[in-house]
Amino acid sequence: MGFNCGIVGLPNVGKSTLFNALTATAQAEAANFPFCTIEPNTGRVAVPDPRLDAIAAIAKPAKVVPTFLEFVDIAGLVKGASKGEGLGNQFLGNIREVDAVIQVLRCFEDDNVTHVEGGVDPLRDADVVETELMLADLDSLEKRVTPLTKKVRGNDKQAKAQLDLVEQALEHLRDGQPLRRFGMAEGAGLGVRMLHLLTAKPVLYVCNVDEDSAIAGNAFSEKAAARAEAEGAAAVVISARMEEEVAQLDNAAEKAEFLAALGLEETGLARVIRAGYRLLDLITFFTAGPKEVRAWTVKRGATAPAAAGVIHTDFQRGFIAAETISYDDFVSLGGEQAAKDAGKMRQEGRNYVVQDGDVMLFRFNV
């Protein structure tokens, strides 16, 4: 099961620099001109989770495997993208394929880096992107009204339900509001997901600041954070250029020393990755044995058979039970056998809803 976040924004706000830092590669060319990213670059990034290390320290496996998120670097958007301006059609097509949107906002002054809108204003930039996405959604939905209306006249009940959903969505968009603010998030129901609407996707604002503002942010990032709070969204402050420098260091000790010198406890990238994970409403469960300790990703609310299916479809098809230990019990008691001896290993069935941090062993028969 893959989950991905699309990195979007206006040209020259730091999207590709952030992507390079995230993936610690030069896959995305970061250059001082619009549309330097033509094809969307994709990178898989490990989700930082100290629980995985704690479990591994007890189980002492041959291999430790984290869970991953996928990040997609998408070409910069400009005004008129919904009508095909710039690389608009390509941009909108690429963003339809991602599960969530990370919108990078330029929150730094630099005369050497041009801004397509003529000056730094993160709220204006966010409005430009939001407006183009809403216009694209309006266009998409308006084209569906006539064919759905014809089906409704033919007593198609499914078409009637979809037309009602389309008209509700159109009402919100015509009022200038993205759909995620009205409980019409992409994951809220099958109908909304089938519409493939851009403004139904969850959004994380990444405020790209100068290095001196990496700890506390600045006036620009404060405005962006206030916007996020008003929308019920999230915002993270990061210096993409500084993070790119950290990513190029050879080992963890050098990175820690570099961060300490700047007064930082962890990279901004770690915060972005975790925020992206939360944005998609994901949780982690673990499997632990002598060969491998591994973190796995599922949507919050997933049942035990669904979690088993993430590992292998046969596990889900022949699911019998899930031997489950909470993370706290596994670590405090010192592992699987000790937890079992203490009566802390539970036999969970098909209806069990997986909890974040569960350490699980699946029993199945195919």
Protein architecture, described:
The protein is an alpha/beta fold. It contains 14 helices and twelve strands. It has helices at about 15-25, 50-60, 90-95, 120-155, 155-175, 190-195, 220-230, 240-245, 250-260, 270-280, 305-310, 315, 325-335, 335-340; strands at about 5-10, 40-45, 65, 70-75, 100-105, 205-210, 235-240, 280-290, 290-300, 320-325, 345-350, 360-365. The strands form three sheets. A six-stranded mixed sheet has the order 2-4-1-5-6-7, with helices on both faces. A three-stranded mixed sheet has the order 3-9-8, sandwiched between helices. Strands 11-10-12 form a three-stranded antiparallel sheet. Helix 1 runs parallel beside helix 8 (about 240-245) and helix 4 (about 120-155) packs antiparallel against helix 5. The longest helix is centred in the middle third of the chain and has 32 residues, at about 120-155. It is flat and about 65 Å long. The model is unreliable at about 25-40 (pLDDT under 50).
